[in-house]
Design brief:
It contains 10 helices and no strands. It is mainly α. α1 packs across α4, α5 packs antiparallel against α9 and α7 crosses α8.
Length: about 200
């Protein structure tokens, strides 16, 4: 029952936003009473927290499955971006921004956890890219890792990138293109060009 509540809540939060979804909405969608939900989660804040980490775990599982598929480093990065976009519903309700605005402590917790998990993935991608000749040998791996992660987080900031002006999927495509071009060799640029053609 708890997993069912988490799955539905996460889905609604991603589609409609953390602020607009009420416990009544979730109960109605699940066809159960609020009392049942409160027996598992004592408040909406607790449910938001659990749902956020539930989604975060799904993101981590998705990334691991893509890494296991052994794509070349550039294709891997684009595949991860695409799969996470699908998982997060293209962030059409800007859940990251709402989480940061209305639940800043939860946002910081999940952000810190995500960085620790993703840091090793990004570092490994960069190292493989250098060895394979896709990325330049002179890049600072730690710095590029932090640039890439923090840049992705900033895309959800609606003060910088308002949703009425920027479509999230297009914004992420542009940022990823920018990131790859900044570190790619000629081989990497050819690979990027082929991916973009698809």
């Amino acid at each position: 029952m708890k997993d069912k509540i988490l799955q539905k809540s996460a889905d609604m939060f991603l589609n409609l936003g953390f602020k607009s979804v009420t416990m009544d909405d979730i109960a109605a969608n699940l066809g159960m009473s609020k009392k049942t939900i409160y027996s598992h989660f004592s408040s909406k804040k607790k449910l938001v927290e659990a749902s956020t980490f539930f989604v975060s775990e799904k993101v981590n599982e998705t990334i691991c499955s893509i890494i296991d598929a052994k794509y070349d480093p550039i294709e891997e990065t684009f595949t991860i971006k695409s799969m996470i976009n699908n998982l997060l519903k293209n962030e059409k309700s800007s859940p990251s921004y709402q989480l940061q605005k209305y639940y800043p402590k939860i946002f910081k917790q999940v952000n810190d956890q995500q960085f620790e998990v993703l840091k090793s993935c990004i570092v490994e991608n960069l190292k493989r890219g250098i060895v394979g000749g896709y990325y330049r040998k002179d890049i600072d791996i730690d710095l590029i890792t932090r640039f890439y992660f923090s840049g992705n987080i900033s895309l959800t900031n609606q003060d910088l990138f308002p949703m009425d002006k920027y479509e999230m999927s297009s914004l992420k495509d542009t940022y990823l293109d920018y990131h790859i071009r900044a570190i790619a060799t000629e081989k990497g640029l050819r690979t990027l060009k082929n991916i973009l053609k698809k």
